Write the structure tokens for this entry.
Amino acid sequence: MLFPRFPLSLAFIAVGLLSVGSPVHAQMPREMAVRATLQGTITAFGSGKIQVVTPANQRWLVHVAKDTSVMVTGRADATVLAPGMYVKFRARVAGRQEVVQPVDKIQVFTPTQQDVPGAFPITEPVFDAGDPDKDVGKKTDDAKTDASYDVIGRITSIRGGKMIVSYGQGAVEVEPADNLQVDLAVADVRFARQGDQIFCVGTLLGPEAARTLRASSIQIRKPQAPDDGNADSREPSSGQSEANDRSATDRLVNLLTPRRGKTPDEQFQIEGDPTEFRPCAKRSVVALRRQFGPPVKTKVQGIHTVRGGRHEAEWQMLTWGPVKVIVDRSQKTRFFAVAP
């Protein structure tokens, strides 16, 4: 059978039409996600969105997705406490059932695998002068008397100004003090309020002029309570309390500062965070917690530089007042910074 003959010009036209109709994916430019950081003050909330005003008075819209990492820290008052929240506090307990004295400090937190519920007896550490990590103290837990405990548990009810905290093996009844201080370390954007400071890392949605950001991580910090400047309005013990806080900060910084000639040649920087962390002496977190109480804990992603090599590290940041401490996975301190 003979195939019909077509003019050569028609063959070239057919090939050309096939070439035009076939998509060439390799030649199509892909839109690259533009990463950006944003810092400012929260002014409003919407459905999955946060409105932010920057120090340059620019208004941005931050989209919060289900996979956005969120951490809210800072101080609040007793009105935020509610059943279902996880809390940490130190208290003097009678038979592990009733707190003897009102509790004046509670931390509300989002639990991790390291946060085991329980009531843990406090020891009075006596540190060796040559090695502050060496705990040669004695326990204060005496079955015949009240004892102090670090309690980690969940609020199950609040009635009559008191709350019941369950810690797995039992529960305690807690009476908050009138001047209760609540420290937040929660991975829940619902704790954020207008006026809070926010720091975001994410990608731009559209051109930069649209000022819209899809956040991959958000850090929110509650503003500190303003000082009214009226010294006579303070409680008589407030001056002594501030002096104790400064003394504790000085002692902590002294423990974390490496000895002369022992400073490691390392750096740690949190992405987009201007905080300058300094290498510190390696200390046990357990020993520091016994001496300075439970810290505020947050997970941080940073760049660890040592001997010229750079690699990403997901470590933990512990905060005691103005002191921020970076802790590695072995629960040893590695870097620290002191807020001005």
Remarks:
- The first helix runs from residue 8 to 21.
- Residues 8-28, 138-144, 227-238 have pLDDT under 50 and may be disordered.
- The first strand starts at residue 35 and ends at 46.
- The chain has three helices and 21 strands.
